Amino acid sequence: MNRKTYDTIIAVASGRKEADLCIRHAKILDVFNKEWFDGDLLVSEGYIAGTVESGRGKARAYEEAGGRYLVPGFIDSHVHIESSHLSPTEFSNLVTPCGTTTVIADPHEIANVCGVNGIKYMLSSSEHAALSVMLMIPSCVPATSFEHSGANLDAKAIAPLLGKPRVLGLGEMMNYVGVINGQKAVLDKVWEARSRGLIVDGHAPAIAGGDMSAYVASGVRTSHESETPKELRERIRLGLYVMLRQGSACRNLNGLLGGVDGNNWRHCLFCTDDRQPKSILSEGHINNNVRMAVAGGLDPVTAICIATINAAECYRLDDRGAIAPGRRADFLLLNDLKEFNPQRVFILGRQVAENGYLQVRSEAIEPKNVTGMMHVKDFSAERLALHLRKNHVRVIDVIPGGVVTASGEATVKVEKGLWVHDPAADILKIAVIERHHATGNIGLGLIRGYGLRHGAVAISIAHDSHNLIVVGDNDQDMALAVQDLVRLGGGVALAKDGEILGDLALPVAGLMTDQPAREVAGELAKLHQIAFCTLKVNKDVDPLMTLCFMALPVIPALKITDMGLFDVNAFKRVPLEL
Amino acid sequence: MNRKTYDTIIAVASGRKEADLCIRHAKILDVFNKEWFDGDLLVSEGYIAGTVESGRGKARAYEEAGGRYLVPGFIDSHVHIESSHLSPTEFSNLVTPCGTTTVIADPHEIANVCGVNGIKYMLSSSEHAALSVMLMIPSCVPATSFEHSGANLDAKAIAPLLGKPRVLGLGEMMNYVGVINGQKAVLDKVWEARSRGLIVDGHAPAIAGGDMSAYVASGVRTSHESETPKELRERIRLGLYVMLRQGSACRNLNGLLGGVDGNNWRHCLFCTDDRQPKSILSEGHINNNVRMAVAGGLDPVTAICIATINAAECYRLDDRGAIAPGRRADFLLLNDLKEFNPQRVFILGRQVAENGYLQVRSEAIEPKNVTGMMHVKDFSAERLALHLRKNHVRVIDVIPGGVVTASGEATVKVEKGLWVHDPAADILKIAVIERHHATGNIGLGLIRGYGLRHGAVAISIAHDSHNLIVVGDNDQDMALAVQDLVRLGGGVALAKDGEILGDLALPVAGLMTDQPAREVAGELAKLHQIAFCTLKVNKDVDPLMTLCFMALPVIPALKITDMGLFDVNAFKRVPLEL
Predict the structure, then answer these.
(1) Which helix (H) or strand (E) holds B409?
(2) What is the pLDDT of residue A308?
(3) What is the pLDDT of residue B256?
(4) Does B325 touch chain A (CB under 8 A)?
(5) Contact B325 A217 (CB under 8 A)
(6) Which of B288, B345, B560 is nearest to B446 (CA)?
(7) Phi/psi zone of residue A141: left (φ > 0), alpha (ψ -120 to 50 degrees), beta?
């Protein structure tokens, strides 16, 4: 808010100037007393000037609420926008009709590809979006030292970013082991954010007791990795804000809801973390969390408060989260307190969506320094040849429905010192091709349970370093798919018998596109169909998402990076041959 | 907290280092879930490392809680330390045994006398006190332009002070009329604090509707001037934190309690605002608010949460307000949940009081640039002569039990053009003598209902400019009392028949002393006795406090400043003669 707007809002509130807009006859939520009241809402220069008795508001323009519920816009407390495959503007176009008006975004994925440039792109590309995008600076780039990512952000690199507008603090500190063990380089980053009075997001699956105390003592403020009501309550006891996450893959909301009560709701938040365009289009965004919470027995006012004022308080966003004077005029009109599909969505006093349809499209800006991120060296089908001296080897066993794998063993077919595909065995070749520094690194391994019969699937989204990952039964199709990715500047490619059957370009860092959500979701659905019907991928696994997590060396048990096979439990590289 | 301490606490929490102190077998309050749990508390370098199962804590030293309640230290959300007549260190010695471990202090009084030097003194003198003193920078110095105060703090003067350590924001914005009317110089100050993301305290008696919306839109966050449950709820609806104040004069707690419920308690705070040493010694400090709230029907846990975590959240003091890892080890052991007289008080892990007795005395520092603030020019008994051309005059009518006066009229005795005291009339002379800039200004008036028969009472505390104020039946005793104040460097003086009957020196700005609270309270009791028994002051009025508010030109109806009589309702100076 600038000073002119500030002066104007005060003048309008006090009656010295006329309001721009009056929303008449609304049932307004008072999130502080947790009660409804009938009133008219006065808006000036995009901010709330106040509420007056129903029907008494005066303004230059009027909108009729017709007795509908008027509530603050919803806030997603933790999201990786990149997981939607959409640029921030297209993400805005997708989620604002759902009633999400603010997100706290952690650009961890693009930072792993483009470093500081990626974070700057997320800031600049979201600057003029309808959605208010606040940023947390990624704390763990790279995630581990057992792979090559595009950047390395230490405390010194992070410091200037923490001072930028719309930056609220440090993103999820995934290296909780480093925090607990007091690793200086890790604590340097937390200390930097903390010393500036900024927020530090947490990420601590399954830790408790003294370890959790140490993690909280470091200054972490939130947790989105809780699984049970007991864990939720224990973490709230430590002062953490606990997020009830409902992503595409990780769906914790129902499992946590039993722990929320009339006392501790104050420290609960909603988030999506990672949510696919398909899920958002079919189920919604934060309104889905609210709907599920209410369906699960939470009273609607508490659910709305969790989605609004709680997030605002946690992240010190005093300018939103409530229908109160001086705050942003980000609000929704709701037909009911069950479905939470907003009849209308207003952001900064402007109606951006009605009945699920976008009315004000946020236009993409030209991406700078974040395209063409395909620095692949010396790649050819020959580089995929898998030399084996023994035929008893480690294989990555896919566990359907999750991101965890098992570390398996198998006896495979070896001809002339090279692995060959055995159609009877459901074992495929998997390769990770370094794409940031043109090192020419290729990690090779074997994967079981993916089910593909013939062909290859390649993708440039491979958490967290986002090298290229490809799986297939033959090197030619695998190479073709990879070469297609390089040509596209990143994305997804499916190949069979020397032909590209389908692909999707994700030119922004190889992670995102400026295409609209519906088109992206449609393309992805087509690619899924090809994967299942033509390539015969196992129907129990997601053909793309599964691959995205095969290179993540912090999730058990056996993973593969551009530097080779990695045993997560032992936390070290291991050879393919046993 | 410095980095070494930070690293140590994490190490202790994780079990890599031993704790300094373990409080064993406590019933610990979890303010976030609002429930009790049995445990041991681990303290390291003055901070909480965590809690462990009861009896399982390991440390270099142990203290036995014996099953007592362990709760966070209490926070006074708004206090003028000067009103205790004690320096910050002596104030600390007085309130810490009551369980107050943090105060948010607004040094409005000393700022009116000493300006920036006064604020710096409050910061430096409190720096090493056991009590944690956080400061709000006074927003209204001087309170009005109809009097001479010692300083004038505009936005430019305030800006550098807002950046100092322990400064949380801008003190109570009393000029709500200026805010509502959009006066630039007033809004400049609020904008300055707001732009830095700092807190702005409010002060808005009896305003509502659009005016209140304008006031809140300016960025004000708190209110301690609420009177009814309805007002409390209306203000909470606007997003304000509402303070349940229990001072010596203003006692709003019981009147507001009916508005607090299971939903809005989150936006309630406790404060004392102005509290005399006598009240603190006899009733307590914030523990008195907690006790009264519980006696009034609030559940003890909610009352304690209001006194602790709510204040911490409102003022963004993330390092306190809860028993949780990484926070200050400021906590109390309580025998019961009724009296709230702490059995022991710990601040930064050190026991500072036991059973009401101070164990760690905070030693005063030499006051700098805040003593000898008696710049009185050309004063003598002759200057008190009250020349009248008419005998029908305005008189200030004292209304017992409050700070409001009535604007009265009277026909008085005039001899040789001078007012003379009429023993039958209960009308006395009152004078305000400018003491900041040696202007030689003296405002003269008449006061009815104070009841003094013979002699004079003078005091250097006269809100908000704190010029000297004196009342009496004869100029010689009045002059003697004033001259005694000048000699003392400020304070209170009672004179009769050419003799000082009693006095109390308040050498710090003429407002405070480094003497201990019990001595000050004893001296004040003696002075009260002299005022009542020897000078025959009306028993219905407080002989000192009443005078303190006679020069406050923002409280109706007729007041007197060094510039003469002031009609508060008309907001202008008026002549004595009608």
Answers:
(1) strand B405-411
(2) 98
(3) 96
(4) yes
(5) yes
(6) B560
(7) beta
Q: Test B322 with A49 for CB contact under 8 angstroms.
A: no
Residue B268: C-alpha distances to residues A196, A211, A319, B198, B314 (Å): 27, 34, 20, 19, 9
**How much is the average pLDDT of B289-306?**
98
Chain-chain contact of B33 with A237 (C-beta, under 8 angstroms): yes
Q: At what angle do helices B155-162 and B184-195 cross, to 10 degrees?
A: 10
Average pLDDT over residues A118-127: 97
Q: Which of B52, B179, B263 to mutate to test the interface with A (most CBs of A within 10 A)?
A: B263
H or E segment and range at residue B558: strand B558-561
Interchain pair A30, B182: CB under 8 A: no
Contacts of A9 in chain B (CB under 8 A): 217
pLDDT in tens, B529-540: 999 999 999 999
Query: How far apart, in whole angstroms, are the C-alpha atoms of residue A299 and residue A31?
Result: 13
Report the alpha-carbon distance of residue A42 to residue A58 in Å, rounded. Answer: 8
Please check whether residue B177 touches A, CB under 8 A: no
B408-421: average pLDDT = 97
Residue spans of beta strands (DSSP E) within B53-193:
59-64, 69-72, 74-79, 100-105, 132-137, 167-173
Would you call A32 and B239 a contact, using CB atoms and an 8 Å cutoff? yes
pLDDT (tens digit, 9 = 90+) per residue, A154-175? 999 999 999 999 999 999 999 9
Q: Where are the beta strands (DSSP E) in B83-240?
A: 100-105, 132-137, 167-173, 199-202, 222-223
The dihedral of CA B17, B18, B21, B24: what is its sign? positive
Per-residue tokens: B363? 């030693």
Q: According to the model, what pLDDT value does residue B499 have?
A: 98
Average pLDDT over residues B82-110: 98
| CB proximity B3 to A under 8 Å | yes
Of A182, A191, A324, the CB nearest to B238: A324
CA distance linking residue A552 with residue A142, whole number of Å: 11
* Closest residue by Cα to residue A280 from A93, A528, A545, A508: A93
A191 to chain B: which residues are within 8 Å by CB? 3, 6
Q: Is the dihedral of CA A329, A333, A338, A340 positive or negative?
A: negative
Q: How far apart are CA A322 and CA A48, in angstroms?
A: 10
pLDDT digits (tens, 9 = 90+) for B176-195: 999 999 999 999 999 999 99
Structure tokens at A14: 């006090």
Cβ-based neighbour number of residue A281 at 10 Å: 17
Q: Is B333 at the interface with chain A, CB within 8 A? A: no
Would you say how long chain B is, in residues?
578
The single residue listed with the structure tokens 């430096």 is B124
Total-model pTM: 0.96
CB distance B237–A34 less than 8 Å? no
Find the helix packing angle between A88-95 and A116-126, rounded to 10°.
Answer: 40
Nearest one of A561, A535, A528, A567 to A431, comparing CA atoms: A561
Nearest CA in chain A to B53: A209
- Min Cα separation A558/chain B (Å): 28
Reported residue count of chain A is: 578
Please state, in angstroms and rounded to a whole number, the distance separating the CA atoms of residues A463 and A559.
11
pLDDT at B402 exceeding the cut of 80? no
pLDDT of the residue at A403? 83
Across the interface, whether the CB atoms of B313 and A313 are under 8 A apart is answered yes
Burial (Cβ within 10 Å: 0-12, 13-18, ≥19) of residue B245: buried
Residue A464: asked if its preceding bond is cis (omega within 30°), the reply is yes
Note whether A237 contacts B324, CB cutoff 8 Å.
Answer: yes
| CA-CA-CA-CA dihedral for A484, A485, A486, A488, to nearest 10 | 90
Q: Exposed (0-12), middle (13-18) or buried (19+): which is A572, by Cβ within 10 Å? A: exposed
